[in-house]
Amino acid sequence: MKINRKNDLEYITFDNLEQTGLVKHCFTTRHGGVSTDYWASMNMGFARGEKREPVLQNYKILADRVRYFKEDEKGVAAMSRVLEEMRKETARETAIKVAKGMLESGKLTYEEIAKITELTIDEVRALDEKVTA
Predict the structure, then answer these.
(1) Contact 37, 22 (CB under 8 A)
(2) Who contacts 116 (Cβ-Cβ below 8 Å, separation ≥6)?
């Protein structure tokens, strides 16, 4: 779980959902909205007794923040960096998993595994220590 902040808006994302590459998500917190009293401050529910206008304003605040990541040049660049980091992390996790399987088979050298998985020989060697431990 990661707590993100953009201006006054606070929202939560989960790495395991992001890593799928299939789900764009966020969970709002109570911070960053305009609701008052019992609902303060980021109430997103119409059925909780609050007047309609503050809830609509809260949706607009959230939409504006999301739009930043989709349409603003800096927002798109930030989202692109995040997605690239996720892609690299997923590729590395896959390479490690494949390397472990190759090590367990015992049929390839460290050098061959490193070449196939694009890990370093030292990384493969360290994985072998973990696999055999």
Answers:
(1) no
(2) 98, 102, 108
